[in-house]
Write a structure and sequence with these properties.
- The protein has two domains: about 270 residues, 3-Layer(aba) Sandwich (Collagenase (Catalytic Domain)); about 200 residues, Neutral endopeptidase , domain2 (Neutral endopeptidase, domain 2, Orthogonal Bundle), CATH 1.10.1380.10.
- The radius of gyration is 26 Å and the shape is globular.
- The protein is α/β, with parallel strands linked by helices.
- The strands form three sheets. Strands 2-3-5-4 form a four-stranded mixed β-sheet.
Length: about 675
Amino acid sequence: MKRRSLASLLLLAAFSLPVAAQVSFEGSDPSIRPQDDLFRFANGAWINKTSIPNDKSSYGTFTILDEQADRDVRVLLEEAAKHPEKSRDSQLIGNFYASLMDLKTLDRLGTRPLKKELARIDSLGNLEEVVRLMGEFQQIHVSSPIAVVVSADDKNPLINAVIWGQSGLGMPDRDYYLKKGDKAEDLRKAYVDYLTTLSRSSGTSKADARKVMAFETKLAAIQWPKADLRDPLKTYNFSERKNWTKDYGAFPWDRFADGAGMPESSGAIVNEPSYFKGLVKLASDTPMGTWKAYLRYRLLDAYASNLSKDFREAQFRFYEQKLQGVTSMQPRWKTAVGQVGDKVGEAIGVRYVAKRFSSDSKQRVAKLVDNLLAAYREDLESLEWMTPATRKAALEKLGKIRVKVGYPEHWRGYQGLSISRDAAVANELRTNRFLYQRDMREAGKAVDLTRWGMTPQTVNAYYNPVGNEIVFPAAILQPPFFDPKADDAFNYGAIGAVIGHEITHGFDDQGRHYDADGRLRDWWTAADEKAFMGRADRLVTQYGAYEPLPGERVNGRFTLGENIADLGGVTMALKAYQRSLGEKKAPILDGLSGNQRFFLAFARTWRIKKRPAALSRQLVSDPHSPGQYRTNGVVVNVEGFYDAFSLKAGDRLYKAPEERVHIW
């Protein structure tokens, strides 16, 4: 592997670091001191020389790894498309991919594959019929003012429940409709233009587009802000079917539930009660013509990527070009890879792990997880602000975390699903119904604890609070997150911090409300809750001061859970790394200590460039802070960072000891 020395000597305080012997840290900028900006020190040269590809809104470590996964999957799909006779799954994924790649057929058919659904909209005569269709549209993944999912019941986590939540906006968040200023007005005008473009091929007018915009603005006004949606206590409101009218007002609730295919005996966990009460009045005040136009737009928008070229390009111009600054549509094969993965991803996953993930890697990652859990146990046992009663429950929860690495033990399969080679929209409609109805059949039944919420080829990871589980798909367990050839300092700084991040989600401001068995209940003493929130509020203030774009700040409350997880993740990963050394001293490699390599590896994981429009969107709708703050915003609170780089007062990343935030 190519090595590039950044300096020949390791100085005490103000220094430039050389490249590690086993892992290239190419892309570092020796003109920047790590004590002043670790993110730019680790990534500055890469940022300066790297251009964001025209078909992307951002580019960085995750993007690069995601592109590799897409290329790997493309090979699998093209092979399956050439030889669908090899197996049923080959036929499934090969035919789906081939249908999505057949642009001539998509262009020729236009909206004809949606003829039945469009006719249903045209035939609507009253609110009951509208609401019934809203329910039916859940089954084909068309958004409307109510979203329906089936998931584990937060207060009875071994049983699946039906959950209702606010939905139905065409723009990414309510703030896009409600914010003041020229920038917000410009985006709203662009959205109306997008709806108008859809109109030209769907029999509606620009006047209809304006009506829909007005309706969605009223919808946005009654929706909860995203920061409030993070509260699992406020968003848990179970209502029996017989009480829906009493709880939320006179509305054809049963018609919606029947359209959505809910079991007759099923109630619903309602996330935002005040929104549903407001929706009742808004629905009755909305003219039938507006309802028809709104549902038509939502349908066309949901399937635009597989309609004719005018729809595909219109959708790109608004969602990618206008909202995120992307200048070119991505190659069609990338769109196809993404859609096949979204719909029938486990059929791909079986093939992916066979080629890209070894049993040795699985075992080594499992050992990393064990060391992270051990570091957490030591931390909880000695945490100075936690009282014995809460500590006991926290240790029990930690001990019961379920770990999933690489791929599922049992593949779910797609028995009964038929996919044609030349009908992309029909395939999408059929698959959406299949997946939705499969989930809905699980309502009221036992949760399958072996299931995954991501496919193995997904470059991501997650913590599931009701399952009390951490999950790491095979695709993220690749360089530069995990490298079997790298030394432990690198792997603990990269994938170790990711593992620690997911464990910490079990103890962030949301996760802490769930007990060892994934049940939503209060297991904290009042004193411990106060101590925790005092520390968390300081983190809210810290991140709320960051201003990535002029006049646009990080929402410290909205991003709190991810910021806690970032801080806990790197803190515990460093402890786990030091624990892994035992009695040995970490080697000095090219003048880098083990802890220095750890922090450089951590900083490199958040290497990213982002277009201003995409960054602006992230600040509104993404609970993660921008990459530079996921690095610098974390390490200013980590004592090991101060020791590794000999920080002192006056350094830009220096915080006085009493100002550093310590939670876990």
